[in-house]
Amino acid sequence: MGGGTVKGPVSSQPRRGMEKFKVYGVVLKRLRDSDNKEASQPGFEDELCNHFNRLPPSYATEVNVLQPEDVIMHMKLLRRAEDATSRPAFEVRIVQFKTNVDAQTSGGSTKLHSPPTLAVGLSPSLEVAHELN
């Protein structure tokens, strides 16, 4: 037996960790560029970094960097969920969707639908259970 190296599957973990770090940087920059109140607080950068570090690398692929305020909302929800007196923790917000209106009646323009729709999300495991039922 020689002193050769053991070869195995190449891990994607470092690459996924780098992606998480990049998304963290984009979210932080967007929050600061938007003059977000929370992002200007002392220690926010460390708090955001800890938030990304406590979650799996797949979190980076699920974050919408165009809405970095959602990350702050997620941080707050996780904080509230840790406190047994404030469980369950949830947030509801109004979301308006753009849809194409019939081309004959509007000339093909895009209009906002009224009334607004409430966006309520399920965790992935609950979505799967719902689909199975």
UniProtKB/TrEMBL annotation:
Query: This chain belongs to which protein, by name?
Result: Uncharacterized protein
User: What highest taxon heads this organism's lineage?
Assistant: Eukaryota
